[in-house]
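Recap slide: N-acetylneuraminic acid phosphatase, sequence and predicted structure.
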Amino acid sequence: MAGQTVGAILFDLDNTLIETTKAGGVAIQKTSELLRTALGIDDATISSICNKFKQKLLQENFDPLSGRSLDDTRVRHWEESIEETLGSLPRCSLGAECYYLWKKSRLDALSLSPEVRDLLRRLRCRYKLLLLTNGEARSQQEKVDAVQCQEFFDAIVIGGEHAEQKPSVSIFTLCFNRLGVEARECVMVGDSLDTDIQGGLNAGVRATVWVNSGESAAALDGSVRPHFTVSSVLDLPHVLDQLE
């Protein structure tokens, strides 16, 4: 692709630089063990509770103005999941016990691999780097703190701290201004076609790079078409070579 020299790279966080889905699996396993010990229920019942929680998490639409914290909201997810499966909550503290174990276990399982750290160090010698992540502000900040990635970026932008998140153009414009670059100088890298790639296309970046974390090629049959697809963020240097 001929065009403007690349001056900056915008990275998504979850399932792009860190394996959030895998960490979530570890957290669910540990919470399953708690449920088994506390309630003496079978694996199918435990799976039902955990699957209900994961569905509530997926559909979550947290409102910071509601007067309830994100922690409170997610404790309630666990309480409802248990109640819906068993018909009642065996003890009033169980939802909180499940949530805080799940939360700690997930954060503990998150990390930037040595290979990703090395990649970011090398890239930062040549490009401006910015982390752009969607999500509730405190939750995403906790992930950033857990993996200690601040040193690798010129700026970190958490969507939940702003009026609009990816794929809205406004948050990309904020990122460009934060770095002092133009859209056509930037590459957007992420695992979500709907937010990372569509957002980059909306904003007019030089190139979008989809980190395909195992989704089928059929996912590309829709209207969102990344400029490049890689199986791992570690393949990014090969893409950048083509953009020179």
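The beta strands are 8-11, 128-133, 155-158, 186-190, 207-211, 228-230.
The two ends are 8 Å apart (CA to CA).
(End of recap.)
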